[in-house]
Amino acid sequence: MSEADIRVLLIEDNPLHARMLQGFLDEIHAPSFPVKHVDNLAAGLDLASREKFDVVLLDLVLPDSKGLDTFVRWRTHAPHVPVVVLTGLDDMGLATRAVESGAQDYLLKSQINAALLSRSLRYAVERVRARSEEWDSPMFRNAHQQFLKAAQVVDLDDNIRQRLLFPQRTQVLSLPFRRDGYDQVETVFGYRVQHVLTMGPTKGGVRFHHSVSLGEVAALAMWMTWKCALMGLPYGGAKGGVRVDPTGLSRREKQRLTRRYTSEIIHVIGPDKDIPAPDLGTGAQEMAWMMDTYSEQVGHTVPEVVTGKPVVLGGSVGRETATGKGVVLMVQEAADHLDLDLDGATAVIQGFGNVGSAAAEFLDQLGTKILAVSDVSGGLYNDNGLPIADLLEHARSGGLVQDYPEGDNISNAELLELECDVLVPAAIENQITAENADRINCKIVAEGANGPTTTEADEILNDRGIFIVPDILANAGGVTVSYFEWVQGTQNYMWTLEEINSRLKRIMTRAFHQVLQRSIDQDLDMRTASLVQGIERVTDAKLIRGLFP
After folding, report:
1. What is the percent of the chain where pLDDT is above 90?
2. Which residues of 221-237 are buried (b: 16+ CB within 10 A; e: fewer)?
């Protein structure tokens, strides 16, 4: 089952209606709607106590419960599961009262079709999440825990500490965009968060993903602030996104959504204000659409309003692989520190997207044997090492990792626990936790993803002597080359790939050794040392600028 799936409990006693609804749900993909059906309330309550559901389709007239009491009994038992009421024309008044009492929506059985049912269920889940879970994000809690630990180490002034806990600017949007069926208009939630405006324009990616929330983008913006400060870049941190599953969008739908999102945030972005870039679920094409939308609004072409765009539109050579390149540069420095020869060493990479595939390619060029990689389909393992060049061609042609024949299929959880020298979590957040940290079996963890390791897991890994290159250091190659692209755009002068790689290596290795030295001098783990380095720079800038008025 995919993370994007919406699990449905259908409580309906009419077998014809139940089969009709299940048929509609079976038709829908991206997201899919795995459904379980019962024909009475007692069975539904029992099932909900044993399994997790995202939404319930509830008929209010059942053999063992009738009327509004059916809804009340369900809400008492499962108050956090959104309800979509199923009703006939003769029960409309009852359905309306249920909505007034807290149900998310009602559907007339005689008018339901697959598109209407899909939208009602998705919106029910979205509305509950928007009301109750925006700030309550595991990623935001993790970012706060890391920050507060580092703030305690440096004895950060409480005024500054309170100021940096939450973003300086937050924009929450509800975005309409047309589906290819032109009469169908979708509404999704979007965000743009700017954490610190003190350091210069803000900088950060735009992600399209079904898990995007205010807390998630706020955490990512906070980490981007420390990342830019650590690299010495003249930016504050920002992040944006749209809560949508991009795999369910056609190219035309994604273009309409990207342009609408850009038009909604156009007053807060700009080459001297806030510079978006690609992130999870977006790439060079989305940046081209954003640049074009912005340029159309201001009346002239502004390439430097975004980074990560195609080279033909002023993008920088080396930007697409920069994050993966930076991860490998940091692995090389960590290996030198630990006297580990990467030629003949072994590596495992979770995630074979833009970051993970580039990291695999560069490690392979160094002679490192890549034992396993993974993507959304799962993991692939070969004890003799995977043929990375061939696997990259397989992935670029649209193939899934688990469909590649030269390896054994394993789960993402199993992949993380494989014995290796270098582990690169380059997928999503919260992958190494207190539950599996004592089974991580490597010498170096280089975080290609943002927030892949929880605070509790950090302590376990550090106690076990595993060397962690934290995300704000390991994956800073992307924003560093984005900075190069922005500079090239403002100067109308392009650098060669050799110049890009040379400058990237110089900046990242300097930051690594500054962090390593602080870690040794102050007896800090690498993550805390990195955060302290970044937080001190931001604090100094804030104190020097002062407070207006």
Report:
1. 70
2. bbbbbbbbbbbebebbb
The CA distance from 217 to 475, in Å, is: 17
Q: Is 137 helix (H, G, I), strand (E, B) or coil?
A: coil
Domains in the chain (CATH in brackets) are 8-132 (3.40.50.2300), 138-313 (3.40.50.10860), 322-478 (3.40.50.720)
Tokens at 517, concatenated: 């030295």
d(CA 379, CA 411): 5
pLDDT digits (tens, 9 = 90+) for 488-511: 999 988 999 999 999 999 999 999
210 with 129: CB under 8 angstroms? no
pTM: 0.83
DSSP letter (8 states) at residue 343: T
Q: For a pLDDT cut of 70, what percent of the chain falls above it? A: 99
Tell me the sheet residues that pair with 277. Answer: 205
Question: What would the DSSP string read from start to end of 393-435?
Answer: HHHHTT--GGG-SSSEEE-HHHHHTS--SEEEE-S-SS-B-TT
DSSP state of 494: P
Query: Which residues are designated catalytic?
Result: 239
Cβ contacts of 491 within 8 Å, gap of 6 or more: none
Handedness of CA 249, 251, 257, 261 (dihedral sign): positive
Within its chain, how far is the Cα of 50 from the centroid?
A: 29
Strand ranges of the sheet holding 55-59, from the earlier edge strand across to the other edge: 35-38, 8-11, 55-59, 83-87, 105-108
**What's the CA gap between 138 and 143, in Å, rounded?**
9
Q: Evaluate the CA torsion angle 92, 98, 101, 104 in order and state its sign.
A: negative
* Of 393 and 88, more confident: 393
Q: What is the pLDDT of residues 87-143, one digit of tens each?
A: 887 777 888 888 888 888 888 888 888 888 888 898 888 777 766 657 778 888 888
Strands (E), 116-235: 169-178, 185-194, 202-209
The full DSSP string for 66-106 is ETHHHHHHHHHH-TTS-EEEEE-GGGHHHHHHHHHTT--EE
The amino acid sitting at 193 is V
Write the pLDDT tens digit of every residue in 145-178.
Answer: 889 888 888 888 878 888 898 899 999 999 999 9
- Output 132 or 356, whichever has higher pLDDT: 356
CA distance 213 to 189: 8
Q: Residue 489 has what pLDDT? A: 93
Residue 402 CA: distances (Å) to CA of 274, 278, 377, 391, 409: 39, 26, 6, 11, 6
Residue 492 phi, psi dihedral angles, 5° rounding: 55, 45
